[in-house]
Design brief:
Helix content is 45%, strand content 15%. It is an alpha/beta fold. The chain binds iron/sulfur cluster.
């Protein structure tokens, strides 16, 4: 028998929710932003944005830090001559890539990242990537994806990047299923965790899964030479909620998704680990033994934060697609009241376990008409607003307390050891507001 995860709210929660769908002007970063965390993760990769000076400024300012070492991203600027069709952009791009690869022989994986300008001039980056592959094979693999603001919101950049990588993953070798007993088949199954996680979080989750006797691979890996194999015996757990295309690409390679909430907070982490344990037949005793100590530590640390946050009313603008799991966490584990939970897209299948854990009747909105949403927010006067950088200052000027959504993506927040840090990201702005008011 598997240990049961307690579900405090009604089991169906928001499962059948009809979201408030709005399609108007939206305030959200483009998919180029994902380069910031992706380039830190895959350490022999380089992200070459084929874009404008605006794109170059965006990633540099989103990186938000002085870059002392040579960064693993850059921009091939499309200038007026290219836009006017006076230059052969493909030739220029070939030249830039050759220069880059000569100067940086450590690069093993090169992404050509599309942008609004490259889309506007209809630059075919998949053709460019194929050509570069022929030129630089086998030293470097060249792939392309789009981070354009026309097509993507900011966490979709990671989805597009990983989805582009999936077809290049090695095939998992398997003995013909017919020749295997049921147990042997189970033994051959492999676990893949999908979504960029900070190295520290990856190490902790690997350690917990290993304590249960499970071997696990992570995608993306830290090095492009260590890409995980994938095939019909792969079972994957999403670590990030914004990877719909990646999940689809993995499924087309035969891999099967394990349904679980996301590993945010104590409950989310426990249920996420439980999904793997159940699939791989880990005994309840062994599962409990593996998680007991870190879970207890996290519960204790959360209790302190809960005192500050209990009963505070929170409003989420749509930004990173982390909003629904975060809302579930702040409501169930910190006692906060959900005023509105906005999400850029509502992927019901990946969100099924999360929606079931939200209190019935939660106002969930999908997409955005920013003016209307601002009106709702001001009328509701919540204690805290989670929103993009562009909305934070105007809302603060109206007397509201804000939290930048982007910080929740850049900070390691998954797993037991990070649960209290995650809660701290919500309590800090309130403390600051109290201090200012004192
Ligand atoms: Fe701006 Fe588009 Fe470049 Fe993103 S891709 S920085 S939205 S021009």
């Amino acid at each position: 028998m598997s240990p049961v995860i307690p579900i405090k709210a009604a089991a169906s929660g928001c499962t059948d929710v009809v979201p408030l769908v709005q399609r108007g002007q939206r305030e959200v970063f483009c998919g180029l932003t994902g380069i910031i965390w992706l380039h830190r993760k895959i350490q022999d990769a380089f992200f070459l944005v084929v874009g404008s000076r605006t794109c170059a400024h965006l990633i540099q300012s989103a990186a938000g830090v002085m870059i002392f070492a040579e960064p693993r991203f850059g921009t091939a600027i499309i200038d007026e001559r290219d836009l006017a069709g006076l230059a052969d952009v493909h030739e220029e791009l070939d030249r830039v890539v050759s220069q880059l690869l000569t100067r940086r022989p450590d690069i093993r994986l090169l992404f050509l990242v599309g942008s609004c300008p490259s889309e506007v001039i209809k630059l075919d980056l998949s053709r460019a990537a194929e050509r570069q592959n022929r030129l630089h094979h086998p030293a470097v693999r060249v792939l392309n994806y789009s981070g354009s603001g026309i097509e993507t919101t900011f966490t979709q950049g990671e989805d597009a990047c990983l989805a582009a990588l999936v077809p290049t993953l090695p095939a998992a070798t398997s003995v013909a299923a017919a020749a295997l007993t049921h147990d042997a088949q189970a033994a051959e199954k492999s676990l893949l965790v999908v979504g960029t996680l900070a190295d520290v979080v990856e190490d902790q989750l690997r350690h917990l899964l290993q304590k249960m006797g499970l071997n696990v691979s992570f995608f993306p890996p830290r090095n492009s030479q260590a890409m995980p194999a994938v095939g019909p015996n792969t079972r994957f757990l999403l670590a990030q909620p914004f990877l719909a295309d990646t999940a689809r690409a993995l499924q087309s390679r035969g891999a099967k998704a394990l349904s679980a909430p996301f590993p945010l907070g104590v409950e989310g982490t426990t249920a996420w680990l439980q999904a793997a344990a159940t699939e791989f037949g880990v005994s309840p005793e062994r599962f409990e033994q593996a998680i007991a100590a870190p879970r207890q530590r996290a519960e204790k640390a959360l209790a302190v934060q809960r005192e500050m946050l209990q009963g505070q009313r929170i409003f989420f603008f749509p930004d990173s697609q982390l909003e629904i799991p975060l809302a579930r966490f702040v409501h169930r584990e910190l006692g906060m009241t959900l005023v509105e939970v906005g999400t850029p897209y509502l992927h019901r299948q990946h969100m099924a376990a999360e929606l079931a854990w939200l209190p019935a009747g939660t106002r969930i909105s999908e997409g955005q008409d920013v003016d209307l949403q601002l009106e709702r927010c001001l009328a509701d006067a919540p204690d805290m607003v989670v929103c993009g950088l562009g909305l934070a200052n105007p809302l603060e000027a109206q007397g509201l307390t804000t939290k930048w959504a982007i910080e929740l993506v850049f900070t390691p927040i998954q797993g037991y050891e990070q649960a209290a840090d995650l809660a701290g990201l919500f309590s800090r702005p309130l403390k600051r507001r109290l201090k200012l008011a004192a």
